[in-house]
Amino acid sequence: MSELLAPILRREDQPFRDQIAELKRITELLPALKRQRVGRFVHLPVEYVLQTFTYEGRDRELLELFDRGRLAFYALFWRTGYFRNQHQLKGRSAGWAFRRMNRQFRLFRSIRKRGLDSDPERVEDLAWVFCAENVYFRMDGHHRIAVARYLGYREVPVMAVTPRDLLELAETPRDLIEYLEGLEEPSYLTRL
Q1: Rounded Cα distance, 123 and 55, in Å
Q2: Which uninterrupted H or E stretch holds 170?
């Protein structure tokens, strides 16, 4: 999971490993954020929320297979790096990996057919991104953003959550508050 949390920008005064630990803890607040609809609905450039090395290393191969159609997907899914990663490296069952990939395939077809859902009321259909001045990472919505990039979208609808949003959330643990208080609000978000 930590590869999904790697910040695009990071605080220079804090060791990277410590920062990842804090970011993982922030993702634990995601159910409360969704339930209370905390955050701001914005459109962000795809490159802000999906790093090239993640996309090229894992997503592109699978999306190219999806693009070839259902038969190609069913015949060749087991050869992808994604399947090997989930099944062999992470020890998940082949059935689990296939079901996960099939869900991504349905998402791919849906976005291709209907476009990206940009209704801020449907929080389950949006990517969630934590945004601070020098820290920026995706909490949820990786596959949706990868599909958008593959299909040529330049911007994606997201719920942007700032340190202030998390400080106002009652569920935020006290020891996480100190980390959040050390982060500045993102100036680029106020310009949008």
Answers
A1: 23
A2: none
pLDDT of residue 17: 62
pLDDT over 70 at 189, yes or no: yes
Give the tokens for residue 26.
Answer: 């922030």
Dist. CA 24–CA 20, nearest whole Å:
6
**Alpha-carbon span 188 to 45, nearest angstrom:** 12
Number of H helices, E strands in the chain: 13, 4
DSSP-derived secondary structure for 32-93: HHHHHT-SEEEEEEHHHHS-HHHIIIIIHHHHHHHHT-HHHHHHHGGGSHHHHIIIIIS---
Q: Is 12 helix (H, G, I), strand (E, B) or coil?
A: coil
Dump pLDDT digits (tens) for 129-181. Answer: 998 886 778 899 999 999 999 999 999 999 999 999 999 999 999 888 988 88
